[in-house]
Design goal:
disordered C terminus; 22 strands; seven-stranded mixed sheet; binds flavin-adenine dinucleotide; alpha/beta; single chain; five-stranded parallel sheet; 19 helices
Length: 653
């Protein structure tokens, strides 16, 4: 019986999880066919680039330890076996000293792991250890007949050779010959766009500094000098990383006051002054750090299976804002008010039963708004997505200083609210948003929504709101931001910030819709992770496939409207690569954020039937069935000798 071979390009969390799913189903599906799996990644296999062990200790996850798992559980609806295991938090509680020593964990990091609680936001270094442990456990539990070989290098091309795939690696002459390839390449670098190139050229001509979008943790920030004014464009995760590296990373430290709460920043003197702006002009909403005060509302309530089936059964294509959003608002509002009325009844004028009856009967958002206005005492207790989503909308200040003070107040209020169980209804809304996320994904993936609405409303507007509301920094990070502001090291620029170049004044110039002032600086950092773009990819492998028409960017059309999402087009349940001529490649698959079908933008949460597990399971089982089929003893030809001969003539990059 010939040995089957599979290549996984990218051994970060997704590649590692796929490996686990392959191992889980192999005994059932491989029929005894031996299998060699090549794992290719220049970074450490199992953790990959983002979760490298040498991450700066100041860089944190923005997930709670109890919300991260690499293991399937019985909520996951997949065909493959469920192989349960600990979440990051459960692992930190149970892992013994000997195991940590085996993993090469230094004492400081071991102490950090030991001190984790479920609601800790762990450092990236801690997550790196958990991922390493998971990966090693998968390797140790591989079924007989499966071997994994790690190639610590970059894959630079994939070619068809007969009916197999030749995977070319940097620094190696012979390609790997395999039956199938899975690209699990994650967050890829892209070449700068026109605007970014212009910024770089301007900086070079005027002796200024420009840092384009990218993996902040890996970028060279050394040209940013102490006390230099820096404009940071982008207020998300990449901005947080930037601030850490330019403050604590330069020797400053945060000191907690005697009250145990207040925070002060002691500068090292090597920090620049960061002026940050973005479209919203404020940071993402703080994560919540308390628990519900009343029993959880039973969900789904309005956006249940029957409602989804009814939507999918309609004759016309669906529009997110018209057809789905009203149900989403009603669902999230139900959870929010359930908590408000049950946990904080003194702030309402009706009992829950009465409110619930009328809420259920309300025929539209206007009716809900009227009911809420009549039964909730404080406008601050009204759940209003539009108000939450754009806190600076319509506000115009006399100067950037005035705007700055307003944003400081906004952040203070946000942290205070998101850490105060009196506002536990916000947490109920957060839970409901996670539940509706799955339902929205199901409708969006059904093909029953207009392509334009799927791209603009779901992937655009809604996803942006979701990330802003549910995926922000831990409160401690925002307290640090306020301490840095107090130390004069962070300044806020306002909403709809734009940056131009001014050759006369030899500076980058930031302007905002929130005030009339200009802010000039000799340095600009585009503090965001680059959006996926196949046409501008910096990855050699994808660039080669693209240039030969073997992968193509997803272009969504809707009548005379069209949009290029920049993502690699995949098709079918096993996410096969699609070529420019529309051919679906049976032996090439791709999964993750750079593809047209990303499962999620974050780690799987325990007990949520996480989409990533389901997706990885389908690909794993498809691969295994195909491999078993090809390598059954009865199959003639295509043995390794034929392949070696084919490779001698086969394409080199
Ligand atoms: C900075 C950052 C922080 C994040 N923080 C969180 C968080 O706190 N919580 C959360 O839930 N999610 C977070 N995410 C989102 C997501 O959970 C992680 O990005 C996760 O790492 C995605 O896993 P992945 O394997 O798909 O991609 P990656 O982790 O990017 O791994 C892909 C791997 O592919 C390799 N690769 C790429 N091209 C090639 C090639 N040609 N040849 C060989 N190897 C290649 C890379 O070296 C990399 O190791 C974060 C993302 C980023 C970028």
């Amino acid at each position: 019986m010939s040995r089957a071979a599979l290549a996984i390009v990218g051994a970060g969390p997704a590649g590692s999880s796929l490996l686990e799913r392959v191992a889980a189903s192999a005994p059932e599906l491989l029929g005894g066919v031996p299998l060699l799996i090549h794992l290719i990644d220049p970074h450490r296999a199992g953790t990959g680039r983002v979760w490298r062990p040498d991450n700066h200790p100041g860089l944190w996850m923005n997930s709670l330890a109890e919300d991260v798992t690499m293991f399937t559980d019985d909520t996951v609806t997949c065909e493959g076996p469920i192989v349960p295991g600990p979440s990051l938090y459960e692992w930190a509680r149970s892992v013994d000293d000997a195991t940590l020593a085996e993993l090469g964990v230094p004492p400081v990091l071991a102490a950090e792991i030991r001190s984790l609680t479920g609601t800790t936001f762990p450092t990236r270094r801690v997550q790196s250890v958990y991922l390493d442990w998971f990966y090693r456990r998968v390797l140790a539990g591989l079924p007989p007949g499966i071997e994994v070989v790690v190639h610590p290098t970059t894959a630079i091309d994939v070619r068809d050779v007969g009916d197999r795939q030749a995977v070319h690696l940097a620094g190696r002459d012979e390609p790997l010959l395999v039956d199938a390839v899975v690209l699990a390449q994650g967050h890829l670098d892209v070449l700068p766009d026109e605007t970014s190139r212009a910024y770089t050229a301007f900086a070079a001509a005027h002796g200024l500094v420009h840092v384009p979008p990218g993996h902040t943790a890996e970028q060279d920030l050394s040209a940013i000098e102490p006390r230099m004014d820096v404009i940071a464009l982008g207020f998300g995760q990449a901005f947080t990383d930037l601030v850490v590296l330019l403050t604590e990373g330069r020797g400053g430290r945060f000191v907690t006051g005697d009250d145990g709460v207040s925070l002060r920043y002691e500068p090292s003197g090597r920090e620049p002054v960061i002026h940050v702006g973005s479209r919203r002009g404020v940071p993402y909403r703080s994560k919540l750090d308390y628990v519900l005060q009343a029993p959880r509302a039973l969900l789904p309530k309005f956006l249940d299976n029957a409602a989804i089936e009814a939507l999918l059964g309609r004759d016309e294509l669906l529009d997110f804002r018209r057809d789905l959003l009203p149900l989403v608002r009603k669902e999230v509002g139900w959870a929010y008010y359930h908590e408000l009325f049950n946990a904080h009844p003194e702030r309402t004028t009706l009992g829950w039963d009465e409110f619930a009856r009328r809420y259920e009967e309300a025929v539209d958002q206007e009716a809900i708004d009227r009911l809420v206005a009549a039964s909730v005492r404080d406008p601050e207790d009204v759940f209003d997505i539009d108000r939450l989503n754009a806190p600076l909308a319509g506000l115009r200040f006399g100067s950037v200083d005035e705007l700055h003070r307003h944003v400081v107040g906004h952040i203070r209020a946000d942290v205070a609210r998101r850490t105060d169980p009196a506002y536990s209804a916000d947490l109920a809304a957060f839970h409901a948003l996670l539940v509706t996320f799955g339902a929205i994904g199901r409708v969006a993936a059904s093909g029953r929504m207009t392509p334009r609405s799927r791209v603009e409303d779901v992937n655009g507007w809604w996803f942006s709101f979701f990330m802003y509301y549910a995926s922000g920094p831990p409160p401690a990070r925002l307290r640090q931001l306020l301490a840095l502001e107090e130390a004069g090291l962070v300044r806020f620029l306002g909403a709809d910030t734009t940056v131009t170049t001014d050759p006369q004044r030899g500076a980058f110039v930031a302007r905002s819709a929130s005030h009339p002032d200009e802010v000039l600086a000799p340095a600009l950092v585009e503090s965001r992770i680059a959006e996926p773009s196949l046409s501008r990819t910096a990855d050699e492998l994808l660039a080669r496939l693209r240039d030969r028409g073997e992968v193509v960017e997803e272009v969504v059309t809707d009548g005379d409207w069209s949009a290029n999402t920049g993502k690699v087009l995949v098709a079918g349940p096993a996410l096969n690569l699609v070529a420019a001529d529309g051919q679906v490649h049976p032996a090439r698959h791709a999964l993750g954020s750079f593809t047209s079908r990303p499962a999620a933008g974050a780690f799987s949460r325990p007990r949520t039937n996480a989409p990533a597990f389901r997706q990885h399971d389908v690909i794993a089982r498809t691969l295994l069935r195909n491999l078993a089929e090809r390598h059954r003893p009865s199959r003639r030809g295509a043995d390794d000798a034929d392949l070696a001969a084919a490779s001698a003539t086969g394409g080199r990059p």
